[in-house]
Amino acid sequence: PFAISAANRQGLGDMLDEVVKHFPEDTGEDEDSDIPKIAIVGKPNVGKSSLINKLCNRKSLARVSSTPGKTATINFYTVGGVYLVDLPGYGYAKVAQGERQRWDKLINSYFERGRRCALLDSRHAPSADDEMMLEYLAHHEVSFIAALTKADKLKKSQYAETAARFAEICAPYGCRGVVLTSADNGYGIPELRDVLDQFLAEG
């Protein structure tokens, strides 16, 4: 038996460790391996859930939380025969070190599969956590698309300059394309869909 508390997360790590012991051994094979996957990654509050909802043309498919870093699992959403894979945010909420390490392992193991779309807040220069993620992708030679979120918070006169600046920032890390988007008004969403489709077609 384990003494646990949902309020302060006490004992949850021990309980999860015990549950995982009874999982079947991971063979590295995915029963849906033939279905294309795009991993969506970004720091908390970058607008990940909102962007997924917009790409899927659904208002509340991915739950938008008022508490950044709430996502602690990998969530799958289907759109046009493709899985959008919502990964836990990096640099996230105040959680126990043991649980954070488990989240890190969850994220890192998934980067070995599928395509990647990194989300960056268009209003700000990449944070230290963003740079760490970009360096991780570059170190492991993982190609990715960068989706810049919250374009509706910018002036239209800033669009071209912002996209060009981020393209220059991301290029050294192996970025395959930068798309400025807004989940609020739909700006750039059709272009992002086209870019992701082309990304998948390249194999």
Could you walk me through the main structural features you see in this protein, from its secondary elements to its overall organization?
The chain is of the alpha/beta class and 203 residues long. It has helices at 12-21, 48-55, 97-110, 128-139, 159-170, 189-201; strands spanning 37-41, 75-79, 82-86, 115-121, 144-149, 175-180. The chain is globular and about 40 Å long. Mean pLDDT is 78; it is low at 22-29.
Short description:
Helices cover about 35% and strands about 15% of the residues. A hairpin with a 2-residue loop joins strand 2 and strand 3.
Which features does this protein show?
6-stranded mixed beta sheet; 203 residues; single chain; alpha/beta
List the helices and strands and how they pair.
Layout: H1 12-21, E1 37-41, H2 48-55, E2 75-79, E3 82-86, H3 97-110, E4 115-121, H4 128-139, E5 144-149, H5 159-170, E6 175-180, H6 189-201
Parallel strand pairs: 1-3, 1-4, 4-5, 5-6
Antiparallel strand pairs: 2-3
Distance between the termini: 48 Å
Largest sheet entry: 6 strands, mixed
**Strand segment tally:** 6
In round numbers, the mean pLDDT is 78
By oligomeric state, this entry counts as: single chain
Q: Could you tell me the strand content as a percent range?
A: 15-25%
Order of helices and strands: HEHEEHEHEHEH
Structural class: alpha/beta
Strand order of the largest sheet: 2-3-1-4-5-6
**What is the overall number of helices?**
6
Radius of gyration: 18 Å
Flag low-confidence runs. 22-29
What helical percentage do the residues reach?
25-40%
Question: What overall form do the CA principal axes indicate?
Answer: globular
